[in-house]
Structures are given as C-alpha cells and as structure tokens.
C-alpha cells in the first residue's frame, strides 16, 4: 500500500507445477498500491492481481456511462523450465524497453561517481572540481552531485525550494557543471522533487500539498506535492526541469524517501486519489524526458523502493539498494537479476583509504552484477588502491556488453542469513559467445568453488579480484582467497 511499491514485496508472482516442470507468472507495472493473490478453488489453483481493492487499498472508482478506466499493464508468462527461465522473460521485456528509450550516452553502460559518501551532504564547488580532476581520464563518465547543494538546515533538511546554496557554490551550479564538463565528465544533480521538507518555505503551501481527511499528509519531516495541481506542475517545471536544462546537467538522480500511504483527498476514494497521483508522477518523469531528451534519469527512491516496471521504463538506471557498505551487497544485487535488468541496476562501491585490498575487491566485484557506481573518499586512496579501481574499471568496460544483455543464473547454497552470510554464491550471465562469472565467498566458504558454465568451449578473457581461476571441462574452478573475497571472470567461446 502506498507509493513505495517494492518496500516489502515486488509485484511479481509465480506458480510452479513441479510435476510438469512448468511455471506460470505475472508481473505488474504499477508504482502505487497493488495486490496479488494465489488461491485454490475446488481442484484448481487461481491467480488474481492488479490495483489494490477497497478492502486492502481503500480504492473505489465510479465510472459514468461511456467512461473508461485503463488498468495498469501486467506481463504474463508461461515457461517449461525453472524460476530463472520465467524471470528472464519478464526481465527481457524491461531490458528491451530500457535499450529502446535510453539516451545515446547510456548505450555502453557508462560508469558513475556519486560524491555523497565523500561529502556526506555537504558538496561544494571546490570539492567537485577536485573530484573531477581526480576522475579525469579514469573511465568514469558521470559525476553526480548528491543531496545538500541547496539552501538547507543541514543534511537533507530544507529541500523543496531548490535555491542554490551560494556559500558552497558562489558562482551557481552552472559554473560547477561547466567545470565538470571541461574535465570530460557529465555532471549530475540530485533532487527529491516530489516531497518538501519542514525546513523549506513550500512546507507551508497547504493549498498545493496532498491531504487526507483535510490534513496535509506528513511523514516525519516530509510533505508531498499534489502533482495533479497545475500550480505544482509549473513550479517543478521551473525549479527542476529549468535548472537541469539551464545549468547544463546531463544526469538526474531522483530520490523519494517516504510513501504517502493509502491515498489522498480530492476524488471518490483515497485509493483513487493515490492512483491519480501515481499517474501524475509518471507524467512528471515524461515531461522531464520530453524537455531534456538526452538526460540520464536515475530512479533511486530511498535505495530501490520503486523498482517496478512502470518506473523502470521511465529511467535509465535505478538504485539497487542503500546497502552500500554492508556485506550483503552482492546478495541483494544477485537476487535482483530475477526482477530488473542488470543494465539498469546501479550498484555502489563505497571505498575508503582504510580498506584493505580484499574488501576493495569484494565491493568492486559486486558492481559487475549491474551498473558500476563509485563513491567514498576517493581523494584519500593510496596509489595502489587507485590502481585497483582503475583495473576494475578496465575489466568492467570489457564486460559491459554481457552485463547489458544476457541470461543470468545463480549458483551456490541457500543462504540462511544475508546480514551474516555463510557459504558462497556465483552468478553466471551469458549472451552471444560471452559469459561473465561473478563469485563471492562469505564466512566459512569452501576453499575451491566449481561453478557450472553454459554449454560450449570457454576460455578466460579477463579476470578481476582473483587470478586463481581456471576452466575445467564444463565448469569454472575458483581457488577462494578467504572469507569475504570475490572473483570476476569474463569468458569467451574458445
């Protein structure tokens, strides 16, 4: 229920007939309240789903004679195979849409650097220029300015007016964006444009905010613009689209850190208010793309809470999770291969000067499960650490084609805990004569992993993180370096 449609479950369901080896499945493309139900009636299994109903989502809609309601799209699939085969059908649809709508700059899966885990909400012009100098010629293409560039009360506080903090950016953001471009990088900018914070003037614009039972919907320190309101549309067109276009940005990170809950006022039911608000969210994203066609849009949503097909179709990339510095990074990233296209799944490698080589290889290897995004204290890395980063970038560039298009299968034991994982996992992704193996060892992992390979004769083309890998018949053997280590191997048909 609400506007974070994957906060607990993804709108994807599968029913398996193990005797016949057949699966049926459905995936709903909707960024609001939804429900899916598997039920038994007599001797049959049933499956239903769609918009949340009156009982669950407080939704009801009155239609006048001749009036039409268009329900959200659902993709249906039936396969003979296993759950990976079924999920590949759904992900392949998203992948095709992503390729068709992607700006030209996105076609070879460029690498990003987001400065948040370096400045922690306090970016400045000088810090960004220094970062751009460090990243010049590194293979990184996007440099993204995250939260805190606006006048605020500290951290995220105060967002909503979108006035530039002239103390941090005395010449305005256009000068910073130009300096970043001069160093060969595409500048990006963070907005949480659908909400306003209590530290901002718009927090009091009660006539233009969403209400429930006549009271502004307030979650923590946030309220929500009523995106159905023409005044709000004009405001955001000026403050968001205008700034991105006029200041020369080529990348937009859209964050969204709260949900409106069951719905809002203005129509015959709270759930219908929510449905109309979600359509207005879609319209806002379409207006941005229409006004700035080459803009790359990242769908973040508090670390991946809008990773469903309708929002993924409006963005080039999406934050896979906010688990940026935890051991479960590769676990979450691997699981998402069944639900979103890896070419859209942005995975952060947050690096610090105090990291040892094994930890750096572990997190850098995780990014090969999707889109590589660097963050952390890049300026403080030692030369040997920086060379490790550059090595990962070089191998990633070679592996980009198979990351961007292919079929994925996960191997390894079922993990009893993500927070304290034991054992190992490996994802094998292959397409058009190439295969990419991304393996991670957790606590108490065996010292030799044997990962099955797709049919064919394979040779190792590139390695990262672990040189002790060898093709042995129909499998890749990996000598494990130790607990919480990794290996990345790019193979090509021999």
Q: Could you characterize the architecture of this molecule?
A:
The chain has 12 helices and 25 strands. Strands 6-7-8-13-14-15-16-17 form an 8-stranded parallel beta barrel, surrounded by 4 helices. A 5-stranded antiparallel β-sheet has the order 18-19-20-25-22, with helices on one face. Strand 23 (about 470) and strand 24 (about 475-480) form a beta hairpin. The chain is about 25% helix and about 30% strand. Helix 11 runs parallel beside helix 12 (about 385-405). The protein has helices at about 55, 85-100, 115-120, 125-135, 175-180, 230-245, 270-290, 300-305, 310, 330-335, 355-365, 385-405; strands at about 10-15, 20-30, 35-40, 45-50, 75-80, 110-115, 140-145, 185-190, 195, 210, 215, 220-225, 250-255, 295-300, 315-320, 345-350, 370-375, 405-410, 425-430, 435-440, 450, 460-465, 470, 475-480, 485-494. It has about 500 residues and is of the alpha/beta class.
């Amino acid at each position: 229920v609400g506007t974070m449609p994957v906060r607990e479950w993804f709108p994807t369901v599968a029913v398996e007939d193990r005797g016949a080896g057949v699966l049926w499945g459905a995936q709903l493309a909707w960024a609001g309240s939804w429900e899916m139900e598997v039920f038994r009636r007599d001797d049959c299994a049933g499956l239903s789903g769609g918009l949340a109903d009156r009982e669950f989502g407080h939704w009801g809609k009155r239609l006048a004679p001749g009036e039409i309601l268009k329900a959200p799209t659902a993709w249906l699939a039936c396969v003979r195979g296993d759950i990976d085969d079924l999920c590949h059908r759904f992900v392949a649809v998203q992948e095709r849409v992503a390729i068709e709508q992607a700006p030209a700059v996105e076609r070879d899966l460029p690498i990003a650097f987001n400065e948040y885990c370096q400045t922690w909400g306090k970016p400045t012009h000088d810090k960004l220029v220094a970062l751009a100098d460090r990243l010049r010629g590194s293979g990184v293409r996007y440099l993204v300015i995250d939260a805190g560039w606006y006048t605020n009360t500290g951290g995220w506080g105060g967002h909503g007016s979108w006035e530039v903090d002239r103390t941090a950016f005395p010449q305005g953001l256009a000068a910073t964006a130009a300096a970043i471009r001069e160093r060969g990088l595409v500048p990006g900018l963070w907005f949480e444009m659908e909400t306003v914070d209590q530290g901002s003037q718009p927090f009091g614009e009660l006539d233009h905010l969403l209400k429930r039972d006549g009271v502004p919907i307030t979650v923590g320190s946030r309220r929500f613009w009523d995106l159905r309101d023409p005044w709000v549309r004009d405001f955001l067109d000026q403050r968001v689209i205008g700034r991105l276009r006029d200041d020369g940005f080529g990348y937009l990170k859209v964050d969204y850190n709260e949900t409106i809950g069951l719905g809002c006022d203005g129509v015959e039911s709270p759930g219908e208010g929510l449905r109309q608000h979600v359509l207005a969210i879609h319209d806002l994203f379409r207006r941005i793309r229409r006004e700035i066609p080459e803009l790359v849009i990242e769908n973040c949503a508090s670390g991946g809470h809008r990773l469903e097909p309708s929002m993924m179709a409006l963005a080039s990339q999406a934050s896979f999770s906010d688990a940026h510095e935890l051991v479960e990074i590769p676990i979450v990233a691997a699981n998402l291969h069944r639900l979103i296209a890896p070419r859209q799944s942005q995975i952060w490698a947050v690096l610090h000067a105090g990291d040892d080589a094994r930890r750096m290889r572990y997190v850098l290897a995780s990014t090969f499960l999707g889109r590589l995004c660097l963050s952390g204290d890049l300026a403080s890395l030692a030369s040997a650490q920086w060379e490790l980063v550059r090595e990962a970038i070089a191998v990633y560039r070679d592996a980009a084609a198979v990351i961007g298009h292919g079929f994925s299968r996960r191997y390894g034991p079922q993990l009893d805990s993500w927070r304290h994982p034991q054992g190992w996992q490996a994802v094998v992704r292959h397409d058009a004569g190439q295969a990419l193996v991304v393996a991670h060892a957790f606590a108490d992992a065996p010292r030799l992993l044997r990962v099955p390979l797709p049919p064919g004769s394979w040779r190792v083309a590139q390695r990262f993180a672990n040189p002790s890998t060898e093709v042995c018949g129909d499998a890749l053997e990996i000598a494990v370096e130790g607990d919480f280590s990794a290996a990345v191997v790019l193979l090509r048909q021999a």
